[in-house]
Amino acid sequence: MNDFKNSELIDFFIKKVKKIYGNEYIPLHRPIFDNKEKIYTNEAIESNFVSSVGKKVDEFEDIFAAFTNSKFAISTVNGTSALHVALKLCNVSPGDEVITQSLTFIATCNAISYLDAKPIFVDVDKDSMGLSPESLNKFLVTNAKKEKGITINKKTGAKIAACVPMHSFGMPCRISEIKKICSDWNIRLIEDCAESLGSYYMGKHTGNFGDFGIFSFNGNKIITTGGGGMLVTNDEELAIKAKHITTTSKIPHKYKFIHDEVGFNYRMPNINAAIGCAQMEKLDRFLTIKKEVASEYEDFFSDLEVEYVSNYENAESNFWLNTILMESSSHRDHFLNVTNEKDIMTRPAWTLMNKLTMFNECQHDDLKNSQLLEDKIVNIPSSVPASSEWLFK
Ligand SMILES: *Cc1c(COP(=O)(O)O)cnc(C)c1O
Question: Which residue from 114, 191, 195, 224 has its CB within 8 A of the most atoms of ligand 1, so it is best to mutate?
Fold first, then answer.
């Protein structure tokens, strides 16, 4: 793509995005509320249960488990705390190592660090933008050995305790294939589904493949509770432990305060859960409309011969954020500069985790696709359009 073609593309893009979202400032992803959030929040306030005990929390967890087809759902104060607890309950301990991708949001690596464990960065697939099963297998065959059923990193001598793939921008990674490799190596599997509520791989909702899936309800995610997170699992014992440890490890009793281990105050407040209940009522509609927006974008970019990241085989994305791949990092930067100047919010991918000072000494493979994607990715406005014709057509 020459510079002239790039400028022409930007003009066309700005027209297109305004046609979908209107002429005001266009954010990358805004929340959508109606009256229900206010009604349910009022109910929570009037019940006097505003903190982590209350009917809305149970209700939100039940609706969420049903939607994701998970046996158990445990709500938390945010997605990062859900990750922290999931890793802890998978016995990730100080000095252990956890395999993840370098193309992810900082929260994934922060949670690993809270347990004094270290991330190892393995490459992603170009089409899924998530952890590559092929690269994972290659890393383990080259670098790991099994000792008494435990996988040890031959280079560092550390235990490789867990693997945390992430479903980037809602596009599911090849999680079935990853699960099989983790099972073979006896490595615990936690899915970072912060971005993938409503995304499926081989017809199964993300979050159900490993020991835990974790979700986020930050203001920019598919649904929001202001701030919030969720753990899902199909293992009853893990579910009971997760609820216990997120509730200060208090043993239920009529009036006594007995706690049987060091716990966390990580449970979602009832007020936030009230908002979550209202959002869940709209989730199916959000997903339908997001898929319509995605297909508009896909048609638009295919006419312009710009690479648009669409579903690959077996993948069904929620299209939380639509992604295009620019020809080079300089084309990307030009695109970002012009669109943001014109009040259209577009964003590059995160800086690869292995380039941040906290993680620049962590082990990694060649990260070929991760680097390529970091150079090319631009995320474009992807909210549910607020205009009524989109909401109700
Ligand atoms: C948003 C996000 C999180 C963390 O969620 P918070 O609720 O902000 O703590 C974790 N991982 C990824 C990939 C995310 O995008």
Answer: 195
Average pLDDT over residues 203-211: 98
- Looking at the DSSP bridge assignments, the partners of residue 265 are 247
Report how far apart, in Å, the C-alpha atoms of 201 and of each of 60, 212, 312, 313, 314 are.
24, 16, 10, 9, 6
65-102 residue pLDDT tens: 999 999 999 999 999 999 999 999 999 999 999 999 99
pTM of the prediction? 0.97
Residue 275 main-chain phi, psi, to 5 deg: -65, -40
* 222 within ligand 1 shell (Cβ under 6 A): no
Q: In angstroms, rounded to a whole number, what is the distance separating the alpha carbons of residues 194 and 176? A: 18
Q: According to the model, what pLDDT value does residue 55 have?
A: 94
Residue in 218, 225, 230 to alter for ligand 1 test, most ligand atoms within 8 A of Cβ: 218
* In the predicted structure, residue 393 carries a pLDDT above the cut 70: no
Dist. CA 284 → ligand 1 center (Å): 21
Q: Which of 380, 73, 104, 381 is nearest to 215 (CA)?
A: 73
Question: CA 46, 47, 48 angle in degrees (round to 5)?
Answer: 90
**Ligand 1 pocket member 105 (CB < 6 A):** yes
